Amino acid sequence: MAERYVYSFGGGEAEGGKELKQLLGGKGANLCEMTRIGVPVPPGFVLTTDVCRAYLRDRSYPEELREAVSGSLKRVEALTGKGFGDEDDPLLVSVRSGASVSMPGMMDTILNLGLNDHTVEGLARQSGDRRFAFDAYRRFVQMYGNVVMGVPNHDFERDLERIKAEERAHEDTDLSADALARAVRIFREHVEEVTGRDFPSDPADQLWGAIDAVFDSWDNARARAYRRVHNIPRDLGTAVNVMAMVFGNLGESSGTGVAFTRDPSTGEQTLFGEFLVNAQGEDVVAGIRDPLPLDRMRTDLPDAYAELNEAASTLERHYRDVQDLEFTVERGTLYMLQTRTAKRTAAAAVRSAVDMEAEGLISRDEAVLRVDPSQLDQLLHPGLDPEAEVEVLATGLPASPGAAAGLVVFNPDEAAERGTAGEDVILVRRETSPEDFHGMVAARGILTARGGMTSHAAVVARGMGKCCVAGARNVRVDEAYGRFEAGGAVVEAGDWITLDGATGRVILGRVPTVEPQMSEQFRTLMKWADERRRLRVRANADTPHDAETGRGFGAEGIGLCRTEHMFFEDGRIDAVREMILAENPADRSAALERLLPMQRADFVGIFRAMDGLPVTVRLLDPPLHEFLPYGAAEIKSLARKTGQDPARLRAQVEAHRESNPMLGHRGVRLAMSLPELPRMQARAIFEAAYAVRQEGMEVIPEIMVPLIATEEEFRRQKEIIDAVAAEVHADAGGEPLPYLVGTMIELPRAALIADRIAETAEFFSFGTNDLTQTTFGLSRDDAGSFLPMYVEEGILSADPFQTLDIDGVGQLVEMGTREGRRARPGLKVGVCGEHGGDPSSVIFFDGVGLDYVSCSPYRVPAARLAAAQATLKGRPVESSERATEKAPALA
Amino acid sequence: MAERYVYSFGGGEAEGGKELKQLLGGKGANLCEMTRIGVPVPPGFVLTTDVCRAYLRDRSYPEELREAVSGSLKRVEALTGKGFGDEDDPLLVSVRSGASVSMPGMMDTILNLGLNDHTVEGLARQSGDRRFAFDAYRRFVQMYGNVVMGVPNHDFERDLERIKAEERAHEDTDLSADALARAVRIFREHVEEVTGRDFPSDPADQLWGAIDAVFDSWDNARARAYRRVHNIPRDLGTAVNVMAMVFGNLGESSGTGVAFTRDPSTGEQTLFGEFLVNAQGEDVVAGIRDPLPLDRMRTDLPDAYAELNEAASTLERHYRDVQDLEFTVERGTLYMLQTRTAKRTAAAAVRSAVDMEAEGLISRDEAVLRVDPSQLDQLLHPGLDPEAEVEVLATGLPASPGAAAGLVVFNPDEAAERGTAGEDVILVRRETSPEDFHGMVAARGILTARGGMTSHAAVVARGMGKCCVAGARNVRVDEAYGRFEAGGAVVEAGDWITLDGATGRVILGRVPTVEPQMSEQFRTLMKWADERRRLRVRANADTPHDAETGRGFGAEGIGLCRTEHMFFEDGRIDAVREMILAENPADRSAALERLLPMQRADFVGIFRAMDGLPVTVRLLDPPLHEFLPYGAAEIKSLARKTGQDPARLRAQVEAHRESNPMLGHRGVRLAMSLPELPRMQARAIFEAAYAVRQEGMEVIPEIMVPLIATEEEFRRQKEIIDAVAAEVHADAGGEPLPYLVGTMIELPRAALIADRIAETAEFFSFGTNDLTQTTFGLSRDDAGSFLPMYVEEGILSADPFQTLDIDGVGQLVEMGTREGRRARPGLKVGVCGEHGGDPSSVIFFDGVGLDYVSCSPYRVPAARLAAAQATLKGRPVESSERATEKAPALA
After folding, report:
1. Low-confidence winner among A48-52, A121-125, B70-74, B629-633 (lowest mean pLDDT)
2. ipTM of the complex as predicted
3. Beta carbons of A416 and A514 less than 8 angstroms apart
4. With contacts defined as CB-CB under 8 Å, which chain A residues touch B229?
5. pLDDT at position A285, please?
6. CB distance from A474 to chain B under 8 Å?
């Protein structure tokens, strides 16, 4: 036989199945598969992606196609007992696109195809419902006119509104059969006027028009752009699904609904869903009538319910995963219209995966692969009480998950004071800066009007596991007057608001929250993940509290302990400022001398919390002006405190300002200019390390130099650090404490000369946040004005600050790792940017061979799971033998 | 014979020569060579770099060394008739380091070695000058104590001052022999007290101490750091030169001097130099007595002069280059102490190279290699009258060469007005921004207090060939009060100052300047360069005037025409601002509509100037806020003009501010957000191109999209540009005008994905300024606070904004070129950053295989010459056969 272009299904038999997903598309393959395993599906057929490829190549169809389609149509006619174009008992069909990957821009569904002025009368007679028949006709003309012939849907809606007004009809359902017949006439005339083409009356012409439209939609501009960005080959092509129509709106013994084989919220093993009697799928979507819980079908349509139950059970066992089903009951007979893997909450994903392993449906490997790591966040943070009524003022970015209610405070000092005193406060700022840190620590949640998912507020809040809504652009903050305006309301300082970090909602008033529960299944799944992963997972933590949180979530060390936040704490900022503004090394050393014991105490706390695990401490990174006062009032106040001339102080502060602070005097450049600074920090680290060891604990310090661009910078810093280590050891006595000195790789140049840096550096940690900024030439703080548009329009496949840009930044990570290890075999390499907690990035890091990823404490579980999935994706997954035994007929 | 560790020279014979530069160091090899070709040199010997390597390895000397040194010493004794340590007629020697490359931190000279309390009496007797002998002894102890034994020189100076005070001596020369003997005693006691070691009396001990010190200095910290940064292998090693002392201070028939075989300022073929009767080399350096022109030697020491003349001629013909000679006449006998290639001005370099070719001394290839391209700038700009007396107020960076005098103006509007009216003005700013452009155009020179060699002021000034002194940190500018303070003086608006762009000097008052002269020799040399180079050279030019200047200097096209400056011109900025602040596309289009004819007129002028040559136009690049008003007054004024609410306007302006503008909403990102903008610019370009072609000229437009990070950005921009091209062609008719659409490669990511970009891009131009900024994570504007320190301390071998960082940025240039051409064979690739005019960078670009470099018009000749040198360095250079014929004995 020549190539087969059309695959039929129906009557319990199908010419294909799920193994032909590439050829039949996901939807078509599943329709065949369901038919084949005995689930009731209306008969139909699939035009393969080969046809699509031929059409794209030749702008015409293979010769044999028309005959094949007409053969398949005959088969459907035979199975349904109806005739396509038959004026007495017309066969109507739906036409849908369906590729093996889902893609935006593709043609949507055409329903009721086959109707014209003659067949509609047959349908009216057969159904005994003239209004039903003309409503179906009206819907068809509208869909076809819009989707196939390109007339804006808005035109039809406008005409329909006019008719309703003339008929004094309130709802569509109030329109009579005659009114609907008039609508059909008006629609068709309008289409012909706009397009200059006849509206096809011949059902065959209708069908081929719809098929053309599906294939053409594969190549429209939006789809082309999407494919380019997502590396989808053009010649993958789409299939076309043609299926006999069934109707749920033929009276009280008909209906339509959706069902999940398990509860998609909780994972509970129960058939879950909704249905509507005497309705079509569209009506459910339109929300005109409230659907009923599926349970009600048990009493309303008991036979169909029993059949549905059986089909659901068959499908779940066959596909070995939770299924999301669409069905229609036509005059008592159940038809399954679609089955697909169900979307589910994190809780449901975890529970169903662990349950299914116990049921023998899937293996542990498979269970680990079943849960999307990026969902796990949901399980670790409090959420809003789902029962509560809420008044949403604005929606920003869901920058850090969790939910929090509190009194609005605009001033970080006040937030620090009242928060520490035990009040629930929400810090509201236009945007935050490191100076606001103490206020952020004490607040229950943070709301900013500017900044993106990786703005200062977002990064710091995620690090603390604190709820944050960032970049809520409709929130107009007036910090001076102590109020903000949003959604028409004015919120004053002291009013209650609630933030929902999971959705980005800003809610007026105090909404109750529910605490997270870490289930038994969650712990089981994480255990399985840990047994499988190669990559180690550390936490980014700047305080003993964060360190403990990270350890509690399974972190195997600290991958990034930033020291700058320590500089902002109460009582320190003055010494820091004196150090910065010092006119000579002696004054600078005096100020640093005062900081030393405080910094040492910080490290003591962190080393204790991480007894036995490595702690990577990054030396001071931000530009010094971040520590200086900003406004005139603050400058004046500092001048008063230090007895300086305010004008002179302002000039000094001004001199520290930079045009592009991200690319300025920061990181190791500070340490090169002010060697007293790394000396003090190294001393604080080593003194703390020796002291904690004295307490009988094991301390493994790893000192990290930030922003290295040249090997010489690192070499000189390492000399300083090693010298301090020797001094402290000389004073402390005992065995020398082992430590490592390494560097961030966060500039393209560092990755490019990694071999030279690795000659002296003892470990690397990729700072992928800054590396992304410099590789793209893109500031996180400023990207808000165009990056969302880039992602939306498909210029970038994802926000590169959230998901590592493998094509660009990934090349540098790969190159840096390879070259670093060439110079120093076995070099320890990690990553400590935000990407360390992003599941798809983690898979890349595992592939490159990094030793560990480090992320904020609350993302540690997600990273552990993603690391396990990375391992599993790199080798054949063990499938459950028991599952195979139990369902041998379906394998 | 075993390895030879010591090479002797003297008495017309030498054991080595210039071919042994690696083994004997530059200085030692030349001493041997001079001896060998019959030039009178005091006898001596060289310890080879092999000895240095052995010493570095073993901390001891090869066994045979002592014997070899003592044998060589004997030979010197025999030739001089003196004895080393002989109390009657002592041999004294000098000891000097000498590697094959010069390096900072190496040990300096020790003179008069061999003196002690006994031999000094012999020297006194032999010379008949007791004071001379003790002065020599005092100098020796001071040098040895400082250089070999490590006592600070300041200690000796302090003791000597005390003795002078006690003796009531005004100058060193007033000290008697006894006073000098006392100084020797005090010096020795001080050395012994500080070091706890005896000052060596035995000449052999003195000699070995000095030899140790030379070899130790090879490995000191400063030398090590320098070698690391400059990739000089440690085991290159240094040689040690030991040579019999001769004295120019033994009366009226003695003397010392320096000579150049041609005038180092003009290149004129005449023996040129200075000498002092009855003096040592040190005295010339100390500047106590004014040296006489060498010509005077003709009458004062006629025989020695004749000998010197002959030696100079021999050496120049032997080395086939202008020589810089040191000599001493001891009681009528001439000794040559050193010969090396002479440093010279650009004028001298060009003239001597072309003359020497005519004289048959060198080939044309060699002549082209003889001139340092970076010097050529000197020949193209006016300079200060060298005769003028000047009062220097401050010194900044020599940011753009030339010299200019003018009235101080602080306000760019005023500068524009008065400059256009014909007044000579100097624009003085704390720093400049694109808004100051009109004032910079009209000023004679620009002075800024902040910013580096690649700050806005510097780049723009160089582009215009206008004198600029940038980053003069001691100039405190008070723009509000219209004055600046520097060097203790207060300069008001309207005062005269003069800038020297060649040295960075800021001079009070009006200093006369002299115009540049392009000599016949210059034109000859450039012709030879053009005949040899492969790389094409284009100019960066934004105006017809700059385009003409570039073409006049030999540019073969425009490699970068920035369009942003056009937006600042009179009458346009208002339309630009309206475009930016427009609330909807219609208002924006209206504003752009007004800009279109002006922008078209700009291109018409440039295309006319470049008839027949390609012109690369870069679409708008800077962030939009650069075009917005800055201060409150300006905002108010704009609000008045446009009838907007000032508060609202201020908020809009504020919303455009960015944290890191360099990494913000600029380049193609603007074009993606505001597609009307590239559409307008493309239309202006094509309409201008068709119009100029209509005039009978050839127009070759190349449209360049800036700041590409993804292939999709470029693809969409190219679609816009191609569509506009088709529209304009449809209106204009005729043959379609050929054009290219390409992109800047100025972000690391663009270089990393160059293959994908090249699928649609028709040319690449590396924007190495921005590429350096992002690769290093280093903002040009902010680097001033640490980059100079980095270069000074050897962390970087050069300012990467001036000389391409080959190790890092160079990798990306190489990778981008290779990958781009892999996707599109024959892809045209150029560079248009500042590095395009930097000679050593040009050599790299030639090696990578770029098609062209583009630089500011005044650097075009340097780039042409550097390109020729790059070609010559890649193949065997043809040496002059005539030269070889003429001097066969010396070959």
Report:
1. B629-633
2. 0.82
3. no
4. 712
5. 55
6. no
